[in-house]
């Protein structure tokens, strides 16, 4: 089995097979998934981690440092191999997390695509007081070496980092205000600690009477779930990211609201559930690549999770080809709002 993704193709040519190393936020690639030895995998993408679990690798969704330290698959790793994400703040979070959960001096490798921001990793490593040595370059990717270190308060005080507050290292959670609600942020979550224009347009298009039973798919920071619950809906929510699930749970709690939030690859955690409404601002990127897959599955499968007469309402960038998908899945749909950048669509299941 040969590697499909550029970062894995670079790793494939290394002398080391990274035996007993922790693979951190790896991409979906059959080269490592089909390995003839068990991998230790730590990530936040439920779809990838489910694939790793199905391949009998040891996986962890841990989003808290204490939880990660208590996980044998993480704590006893011989080293850590971090796949650098598009969101640089999330890459920094992974580095800080590794320094908190692994012994000082544990080897780290950081790999990623040049167009995906791997060059930023050198600067962040050095800002954290860590070694940064370039090992290899190929397939428009770079591989860097470092080691974990103790991240002391004095370093936190001097670091220009979103993870250092008043001389202390944090776990990245923050709060912001939108639509008279308190919401939770975390590095890498869509929206970057503010209400994005598409979601604002979507929420402004929903009936204010609320729904009796609603599902928020791709919950992110929880703004849609909180808005639905605030307007009287019994809310369930799902997201493929463990960070998003935690953020949505925190956002609901901040506002004194309730909801059932689950790790879910689109509808995978909601088999047998039916809703009056499904509301979503579905992603169309996976790291740097455009990926219509999750949104296409959302539209194709929505009817199976709607009550008769139930609606799917979603917002999308105006250029995305969702009208054809909606037409094929529902037969007809309407446009509730249309700006030069976004459109809000609503489709209804036949009664």
Automatic annotation (TrEMBL):
Could you tell me the keywords of this UniProt record? Cytoplasm, Methyltransferase, rRNA processing, S-adenosyl-L-methionine, Transferase
The organism's superkingdom is given as Bacteria
Output the InterPro entries linked to this UniProt entry.
Answer: DNA_methylase_N6_adenine_CS, Mtase_sm_N, RsmC/RlmG, SAM-dependent_MTases_sf, Small_mtfrase_dom
According to the UniProt entry, the coiled-coil residues are: none
Q: Which SUPFAM superfamilies does the entry mention?
A: S-adenosyl-L-methionine-dependent methyltransferases
Q: Which residues form the Methyltransferase small domain?
A: 181-346
Ranges for domain Methyltransferase small N-terminal come to 9-152
What GO molecular-function term can you cite, just one? rRNA (guanine-N2-)-methyltransferase activity
Q: Which Pfam families does the protein's record reference?
A: MTS, MTS_N
- Per its UniProt record, what CDD domains does this chain match? AdoMet_MTases
Q: What is this protein called?
A: Methyltransferase
Which organism is the protein's source?
A: Cobetia crustatorum
